[in-house]
């Protein structure tokens, strides 16, 4: 009977604390025991199974899928968004909204933020960010040179400038082409002090916000004029490429696909991203599933924001 009496008192202390909302000091005074005893009893209540923590995910959230993604791909965090249909436009909008909220909550002061400047999903994220007054970043850095067409360069510049303004930081632009005509042309551009100044920040990133692309460029990217030729894309497919991050291509095992095309890309490298304190990837949709799976095996992504359809495919 001694144990039953002990457990009864422990249960009463737990009820007073968790149900009645009383402070430990108040419980101690009411029951004429020390606060240290109350604290020990509350711990015992958990150990004995008298108090159990139950988390009920709210409707529209997918805790099981998020846990499966974290476990399978060794992620610090996975955010799975609800979406009524498996369609790119709707998916990008929902991912952008969720990423904006997560960034607002987790952004630290004086962050050096690298951003993939040619991503519709990241553009949706920026559209949903509220101006940050309490927490201000230091720099927002363009991770990939602008696209070929002037309008595309304007798109990249405006995205970086808006993001910098919202986070109270200084924009650092990369006002050169993301894909140069030759390795020699790339070396000429790298000799520019402004270009070097921006790229020097790649090694100081505390946060990188990236998109994940398939080998076949999106319609928007195709219109930019800054893509590889059909022959070059065929070369990448033959080499086993399934996706890209800032035009750094990788295969389904998360291995870099090393082709001469890498010598023409002017932007962040995968090694640069691995050195960042935190990398948030935004991607979803059926056409990108293989690319996302390969990207997650690179070992550089800390947080993935995706949709429920893609999450189910990635954990099947």
Descriptive overview:
The chain is of the alpha/beta class and 316 residues long. The chain folds into two domains: 46 residues, Arc Repressor Mutant, subunit A (Orthogonal Bundle); 252 residues, Rossmann fold (3-Layer(aba) Sandwich), CATH 3.40.50.1360. It is 46% helix and 13% strand. It starts with a helix and ends with a helix.
Brief summary:
The protein is of the alpha/beta class and 316 residues long. The chain has 14 helices and 10 strands.
Helices and strands in order:
Layout: H1 2-19, H2 24-31, H3 35-47, H4 63-73, E1 77-81, H5 88-106, E2 112-115, H6 120-128, E3 139-142, H7 150-166, E4 170-172, H8 183-190, H9 193-199, E5 207-211, E6 213-214, H10 219-224, H11 230-238, E7 241-245, E8 248-251, H12 270-275, E9 279-282, H13 289-296, E10 303-307, H14 308-314
Parallel strand pairs: 1-10, 2-3, 2-5, 3-4, 5-9, 9-10
Antiparallel strand pairs: 6-7, 7-8
Helix pairs in contact: 1-3, 2-3, 5-6
List keywords for this structure.
Rossmann fold; 14 helices; alpha/beta; 3-stranded antiparallel β-sheet; Arc Repressor Mutant, subunit A
Structural class: alpha/beta
CATH architecture of the largest domain: 3-Layer(aba) Sandwich
Number of DSSP strand runs: 10
In total, the number of domains comes to: 2
**What is the gyration radius calculated from CA atoms?**
25 Å
